[in-house]
Amino acid sequence: QVQLVQSGGGLVQAGDSLRLSCAASGRTIVTSAMGWFRQTPGKEREFVGVISISGGGVTYYADSVKGRFTISRDNATNTVYLQMNSLKPEDTAVYYCAAVLGYGFFPQVEATGYDAWGQGTQVAVSS
């Protein structure tokens, strides 16, 4: 099975940048895509973006972050990154990375379509 360990996060001011990391271990070969979600108390988990691990590393983003966030991958270290620029207070949330195992639908924007999850990391943006 695949295990996901996240790092990064913290408190920043509006307009600043932050990068989150998600390292995968275990049977990484079966991972077909890596996604990012975020969640605030009392709200459902919200899709942020996804990258294809196989198939050229194509990406897909939610409209709320398009043009500000970028997902990239480093296959040598089995790590994906979420680069967040021009952060806004409404970006404040716990951020989770997730993996699709096997050959799943792309882009997968539903949390129920993911098979493994990271532990989550807090991002807080002050105004």
Task: Outline the structure in words.
With 127 residues, the protein is an all-beta fold. Helices cover 0% and strands 53% of the residues. The radius of gyration is 14 Å and the shape is globular. The mean pLDDT is 93.
Write out key terms for the chains shown:
127 residues; mainly beta; seven-stranded mixed β-sheet; four-stranded antiparallel β-sheet; 11 strands; 53% strand
Summarize the entry for a quick read.
The protein is mainly beta and 127 residues long. It has strands at 2-7, 10-13, 18-26, 31-39, 46-52, 59-61, 69-74, 79-84, 93-101, 116-117, 121-126. It contains no helices and 11 strands.
Give the SSE layout.
Layout: E1 2-7, E2 10-13, E3 18-26, E4 31-39, E5 46-52, E6 59-61, E7 69-74, E8 79-84, E9 93-101, E10 116-117, E11 121-126
